[in-house]
Amino acid sequence: MDQKDTEMNEKGVTSSTSGVVVQVREKKGPLRAAIPYMPFPVAVICLFLNTFVPGLGTFVSAFTVLCGARTDLPDRHMCCVFWLNIAAASIQIVTAVVMVGWIMSIFWGMDMVILASYRDQSIPQQV
C-alpha cells in the first residue's frame, strides 16, 4: 500500500485516509412522508396547535399541501397527500381520548418544525 493511502495510529493499527462517504436515508411510511415542508413560522404554529388541540395542527398542515408545500411523496398527487394528512389528523383526534393521539400529535408537530428547519437550510439566501 502507498504511504499516502494509509497511516499508523498510536496503537499500531493501520487506518485508511482515503475516506468513504456513506449516505443513510430514513425509510418513511406514507403518513410520515406526507408531512409537508412548511415555512418555519407556520410549522411552529402547527406544533402549538397540535400541543393544545390534538390533530388541529396536522389538519391545518394538510391545507399547506394544497398551497404547494413539498412533501417526501413526489410521485403522489397533491390531493392524495392532502387526504393522507387528513387521515393522520383524524387518527390523532380519535386516539387522543387514550392519550396516544395527543402524544402522536406533539411528535407530529415536532417533525413539522424539524422539516421546516431543513427547508430553510436548503433554500439559498438572496442578498
TrEMBL record:
It is a multi-pass membrane protein. InterPro entries: SPEC3/Stum. The chain crosses the membrane at residues 40-69, 81-108. It comes from the Eukaryota. It is found in: Membrane. Keywords: Membrane, Transmembrane, Transmembrane helix. Its main location: membrane. One of its GO terms (cellular component) is membrane. The keyword Transmembrane helix applies. Signal peptide: none annotated. This is Stum, mechanosensory transduction mediator homolog. The lineage of its organism: Eukaryota, Metazoa, Chordata, Craniata, Vertebrata.
